[in-house]
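Discussion board: Methods & Data

I've been asked by a reviewer to show the raw model output for two of the constructs in my manuscript, not just the figures. I'm not sure how much to include, so I'm pasting the format here to get opinions. Each protein appears as its amino acid sequence followed by a line of discrete structure tokens. Is this the kind of thing reviewers expect to see in a supplement, or should I convert it first? Here is construct A:
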Amino acid sequence: MRVPLSWLREFVDVAPEATPEDVLASLVRVGFEEEDVHGFELKGPIVVGEVLEFVEEPQSNGKTIRWCQVDVGEDSPRGVVCGAGNFFPGDKVVVTLPGSVLPGPFPIAARKTYGHVSDGMIASAKELGLGQEHSGILRLVELGIDAPAGTDAIALLGLDDVAVEINVTPDRGYALSLRGVAREYSHATGAAFRDPGAGHADAAARTPSGFSIVVDDRLPIRGRVGATEFVARIVRDVDATRPTPAWMIARLSLAGIRSLGVLIDITNYVMLELGQPIHGYDLDALTGGITVRRAEPGEKLETLDGQVRTLHPEDLLITDESGPIGLAGVMGGGPTEMGDATRNVLIEAATFDTVSIARTARRHKLPSEASRRFERGVDPLVPFVAAERVAELMVQLAGGTLDTELGGSLSATYERAAIALPRGFVSGLIGVDYTDEQIAAALRLVGCDVDTSVEPWAVVPPSWRPDVTDKWTLAEEVARIEGYDLIPSVLPVPPSGRGLTTAQQGRRRVSNALAAAGYVETPSFPFTTEEQNDLHGSPSGEHLPSVKMANPLDGQAPFLRRSLIPALLQAAHRNVARGLTDLAVFETGAVFLPEPGVTYGTDTVPPLGVRPDAATLVALDASIPPQRRHVAVLLTGPIVDKQPGQPAVTAGLADAIDAVRIIAGAAGVEIGLAQTTRAALHPGRAGVVTVGATEVGYVGELLPAVSEAADLPGRVVVAELDLDLLLTLGGDRVVAASLSGFPAATQDVSLVVDASLPAGDVRAALVDGAGGLLESLRLVDDYRGQGLPDGSKSLTFALRFRAPDRTLTAAEASEARLAGVAVAAERFGATLRE
């Protein structure tokens, strides 16, 4: 809302020395947000000039210019070149002298043009910032102004005014008016307020008669009719061609509304002044009386913007006997628009339902200054005052005559129910010890009727504050008026024993461990295609059920994902396309694993604003497929960059297995690996990850065809684990192992086993047999070839033994090693390699 200060001073005492910044600071104190300060960006000397004479001089380019002699109040006239042809000798015009600056900025200087030195410029309304009309210069006689030559035109036209702009939140629609802002400035400063809406209690003057107005709302929304009051006044014999006064044009321009002719300017002016949208009809274009009703199916209306709109049965219309003539509270119709030929005007000031207007404006994508106010709620007691104010200005500025009859359809006497406000509630809610006198005074200041003789207090909000509806909003008003700076800043103290859950701590450990190892987290949307779900979300690529969304963000990816790998492939593709080829990325997120034969989703959605009961929540939970939180990694490109003496090392399967071990260590589990096959993974380079006998995920290298389909060059290795399952198997906590101060004993063992036997099974047998002295065991060699029986291989393991309380002897270490070999021999027929 832009508020011209000269206009604001009409309704509230603003100190003469107050700057726009001072006014903004005062409005901020009562809860508004400052936006900007607006002016006409003019700099003098800009004066009134009288055209003494001119000579028309045709030019070679086909244009005719006028070489003018203009009296600007100096000893001698000035010569000015002007290209306009809409003025005559004796006309008073606005002359911008050398040294002045017009909006743009456009500095004015004496310059040679068309064979003359133009000592200034005769300005148009557009060049002065008074409107968009640029067809000719501004003739002061058209504004009803006659001032001596040399008079300061900036002050004369109101161009020295300035407007402050504030942001008005949707709940404070009353502030979309000078009346509302002036009242709030009065609250902030204590300055005297003069209500331009005073007099609306005159019930006798509101008695309708004469012009027929009927409200026939057959389709009330939420049980509320679309119009509760419709006031009409008639002004006859207006002259629509009369100029709008300069002061009104200046104020409208500062408020962000362009001048459209005196009749429309008056309706806009009163809307800004009182906050009541007004519409004027060309009375002679009406057929019969006015009926306010809902639209019939198939009805159409041409609105003032020239568009023909197909109406909805919920649209509230203004109609006459010919049909629709306006969208109520949104925009009028073209056939009854006021124009230069209008001689008789019907003035409409109504109270429309906020919900109906908001729905209509959004349905037709037709926001307007009127709908902006109606959908926030306007004062239901001000339509009569607004209609009277418009009629008064049309009589004064357009030469009309006011009809004595008043047309209208009125609701019952306006009343608001009292709000119960318990003593002590405001102080308890806000945290400030207000006295009863402070609370009552603050509420009366904003217009409330406060009865403190009862308990709880009975507080009736004012008609212009539809946002004040309960004791909480009353408390907010007290805090706003008394000052937000009085509210103490107190940091809340969290209750003891609260924090991250065990599962949250585990997920954070895993993410932190991967990040510390050099992986970058790439969160993504959980949407993919059915083909990607089948490829990556099933062990062998068979079709498993996927959940399709009814309203997907992307129609090409409408399914909830069964795997994190497709999203990592997309992230890798985007990075490679931008030149980042060495990637180590990971994601933790939910995957959706619907059970075969189960239908998910629901046709019944509980209403908004109502807490669902327990049975509804259970039904909603059952409509969602099971969700598991997974963790996945992807590596591609060099894991070690090329450098002097060191060739580049490309990420391979071993690096993906290392990532799996990092995840397992953070989750507190020991993993096992065994070969497997998966649809998207390279045969022989795919492994299943287990914890004990439980499968928790997989690791492997993508098939070249899969990598190529994702536009990824070279080798790509991935791993995906069920993080929820890992953390469950890991238990409630991960305890760091104690460090022994005694030296370790290291030994190697080479075992000959069947070539098809997984090395992990042999490792597990050695671990089981070696007992508690075994600290670590690593596979260091897998040999197949000369010196071994056909169909066999030699696996070499490095073992490290350590005791927590003593230094181990070589004999103790050997005994533990042989115990492990014995178990391997028993399970798999393993033999020591000679």
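Construct B, same format:
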Amino acid sequence: MDRLSYLSNADSGYIDSLYKAYKEDPNSVDFGWQKFFEGFEFGEQTDGGGKPVEGGDVSEHSLKEINVLNMIHGYRDRGHLFTKTNPVRERRPYYPGKELETFGLSEADMDTVFNAGVEVGLGPAKLRDIRQLIEETYCQAIGAEFTYIRHPEKIKWLLEHMEGTRNKPDFPIEKKKRILQKLNEAVVFENFLGTKFLGQKRFSLEGAETVIPALDSVIEKGSDLGVQEFVIGMAHRGRLNVLANIMGKTYKDIFSEFEGKTYANAGEPDFGGDVKYHLGFSTDIKTHTGKDVHLSLCPNPSHLETVDPVVEGLVRSKIDMKYDGDKSKIAPILIHGDAAIAGQGIVYEVAQMSKLDGYSTGGTIHLVINNQIGFTTNFKDARSSTYCTDLAKVTLSPVFHVNGDDVEALVFAINMAVEYRQRYHTDVYIDILCYRRYGHNEADEPKFTQPKLYKAIASHPNPREIYNKKLMEQGSVDANLAKEMEKDFKALLQQRLDESKEVENLSEANPMFSGAWKGLRPAKYEDIFKPANTAVSKDEFIKIAKLITTLPKDKKFFSKTAKLFDARNKMISEDSYDWAMGELMAYGTLLEEGSRVRISGQDVERGTFSHRHAVITLEDSEEEYIPLRAINNGDVKFDIYNSLLSEYGILGFEYGYALANPQCLTIWEAQFGDFFNGAQIIVDQYLSSAETKWKRSNGLVMLLPHGYEGQGPEHSSGRIERFLEACAENNIQVANCTTPASFFHLLRRQMHREFRKPLIVFTPKSLLRHPKVVSKLADFTNGQFQEIIDDTYVKTNDVKRVLFCTGKVYYDLLQKQQDDKRKDVAIIRVEQLYPTPTDKIRALRNKYKNATKFFWVQEEPENMGAWPHICRKYRKTSVELDVISRKESSSTATGYSKQHNTQQLSLVSRAFADDSAGTETKKQVKKTTKEAAKVD
């Protein structure tokens, strides 16, 4: 069928392939296409009226059949550019348009019957009827983008649902009344707040009130399709309306917050609270069809879209733990702003997670409240793409652009989106073209920057008025129904407002320690340093060690892999366990006890430094073997995933995962600790502050490789100082372990307490294979995590100089101490930097009563590392400390190995130099210090 080469669009190849299949076997294509090709072949030999054409040349009618097909596919592909979706602006023109001439047709063809009508389900039909169908389907209140989807079944499903209904809703009267009711609640609620709380920020939904009946319909439709739980993430605009009219948060509580009332437990020292339009909420509701549905709205900061990965992680955690992997029973809903979805890179990171094994959630329903403006920035200055939702094309997700004034069209589109999500478990986007009635907040004046737009908005009726008028014209509702709804609802709101004024304090509506968190509790100060029972029995330890170091005989492994596991197995008989074994044994013993373990990050399966090898690939295939899954026959899940190249998105996801299930040890590892700052927003807005803002605990573990080995400024520092400056009120734990056993007990401690706190661990690089960084069996089977490790080499009364340090530098100091046999210098390791063990530090100060010098020694520059925190904290311990470090710097480390080595020698030499040192020692210190100063 080479004549199809006349088609100028991509669909020509598709039609050509169908025709070839038809020629080989007519039954291999749909019945409609069979009839079309029959007509086409007949038309090639006739003039369309049955008269033969001499020589078998292609008739003019046959060519026009092709043009009609081209028109149909043109509407499907580009019809969204010509929709009536903007309620307050004229759409910009696009060329070529949708005129008949664009497709090689004219008005003279309108009453001609074309067999191409079978493609849209009409059978042979007049061009007039064909065009009317596709015009009504693709160019009215709903515009659809979907032809880029590379899945014929999905395309067919969308075509049938849209063209079969012409994208026109046909709701029963009760459904229309429900829509009007929810629209009434949305409009009246905003008006009520605006009149009763003048001047207060509320980030009104006005201009986009149709979002409320749309969300209501999502829940109703979703529950009918098997969804038992929805998790919602959204920014501040419209949040109060969603809380009140979707989530069921009481109007009384919301009004009390406007009155400035606090929660009953606000007097607790660790509770700072947050503004009302950042708060989360969860509730159980019953739909109109009698289904029970759980709804959660995640708390979020003002950092737009930051909540997105948190929602996805939370949903995935529930899929794994609560729904046994069934992604159809829970669905995430992300509500975006148009400027944010186009401008925030985190949205792209989250989109790229959507189909990955370790992060997929069965498809996300994305709603965009498209105000056509971001704060004061016009859409033409906010993106380069045609639509704010063009990101959807990356994951081949359909997009529905809907006029925000047409509430029935929006409900229809969103119902179709939910059905699509449930069927294909992929993302779907609904772009709601609306407007923002006021400025960025109610005190802002938008006419400063958009006078023309806001002149149009000022006279534009709200969606309830538009819908009520439509229903009255249809005769669907009584003219007084909307008025009665408004009157009754205002009376209810006034009653709740009056009640709120009598309330002294608010009660906790969503207690943290319920559901999955039942049995846990908030941490008190006295709990922080209380030892946890993390030791394991000798028999249990050895049993697990043998299990995870013995490879199955029936599988062929790479020779280096087999050698590595043989070496690990020998650690058992040699009673010497390295860092990797200490870590893996922590996971193994927790799995044996019934705790789930999840690890993700860039290259975590092998480990950036090729130390972990938690996942092994067979030599002659892509088959993978995971030794830790042999424990308990894999009944307790061990999940480890190499992530996409993301820090911000993945850390947010894992935070959400840990939020939903405190019984899983959830770990994110950075490729290098330096790279965590790509996720600094998650650290600041969730990890370090969620307890005080939202009373939400979390046990997420961050592993950040850290240590100065001459690898340059991007491979040295995990920015200890940034975490420590955020430490207060025992909000997080910051550790820098020096032995495998210490790391073992630290990880196990996370699951052996009655509370959860985020844990940041600065992990080693060179120390992974350091001959002294090993632990014996007794270190694992006895004892516990020690916040401080004293020096057992020195004699207490002989010590004149005490060096406090943390992490890798200990081994540099130890080497110098041992080489010089300096029993007068004690080296004390601070394994936990925060919460700071001040009592233990004070005890050591008293122990070394003959010492005259106390130093903090660190590899990092003086303005970085732990020192800025330590010098403040140690003021409370009666320990007068000075610092030995690299000099202040704007960069974390030098990129030159010679300079690095000189600096390192200098600080180690200075650490051991004192008045009692010999002449040669003093000369060496002076020399290395001078050399360091030169290269600095």
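Answer (T.O., handling editor elsewhere):
This is acceptable in a supplement if you add a one-line summary per construct. For B, something like: The radius of gyration is 34 Å.
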